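Quick check before the chapter quiz. The format below is the same one you will see on the exam, so make sure you can read both the input and the output lines.
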Amino acid sequence: MLSGPRRFGSLARILALAVVGIALASPMSRTAEAQDKKLVILGSLPGLKFPFFVHMLKQIEAEGKKLGVDIIEGDGQVSSTKQTADVEAAITRKVDGIVISPNEVDAMAPALQEAVDAKIPVMTIDRRVDKVPGLLGHVGADNTKGGEAQAQLILKLFPNGATVMNLQGQPGAGPAIDRNKGLHNVLDPVKDKYKIVFEQTAEFDRVKGLSVTEAALAGMKSPPDVIVAANDDMILGAMEAVKARNLSGKIALIGFDALPEALSRVKDGSLTATIEQFPGLQSSKALDKLVEYLRKGTKPDPKIELLTPIAITKDNIDKAERLSEIK
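Here is the expected output.
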């Protein structure tokens, strides 16, 4: 048994070690550690077969390069099972953070909860997951306002009323639900003048946009005044069906996403409009907020940031995020 000064010296050393251990485990010390090491972050998108998500991933990677961050590419392949596996693999690898647009918000909630439980901060983009309260934050477009922008443009183009065909997005996907809600928010109160004569999902897919529009037009006595779609791929497919029936220029066509191909069609007049939701800005902002938290401990303020989409026509095409990509 130690006695006198030797005993107190040993106790002092033990206490000093304990204080060091507490400091190492503290958020402040973890932030300092994050400043010293190269961060590894998963960038996960629903499916890279869609040009929209390819653009988002490219912006995450470009911002990561600027910030000195390594990005792991995650292609969900339009499968929540595959995207869940990607998230679980990232958790096992102990990545520093995750930026993700969930394929299906409800289906992806358990995997994102696993990440939160593993103390991995998660920023969502494009599609919000409300069932996981522990997420670090979200940057996206206000898709309801985007749908409202489509409807407001219909009112402007057809002040005396119109018949409308509505191509809805992927069932269960937050943007599809919100864009459809926004369209109905504006058109339903004036449905005596603005009638939705057909609406069906084409699952954000160009080929399905073509086939659904072909079938709809074949079953109508007269074509609609407007075809509105929840993304550009569907409206570009619908455009082919309209062209095949010699109806080009007789039906207003309104898409959503402001893809370069759609912008090119707006520019040449074959597409009436598309909705710009600034996907590149969503992606870079989300990564900035995540890295700021990892390096400095600063939480996003506001936690949920929603950008306001705008309708892009020939008159304001200069406001499109991807205008420079038009070939």
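If your answer matched, good. The CA atoms of residues 210 and 238 lie 5 Å apart.
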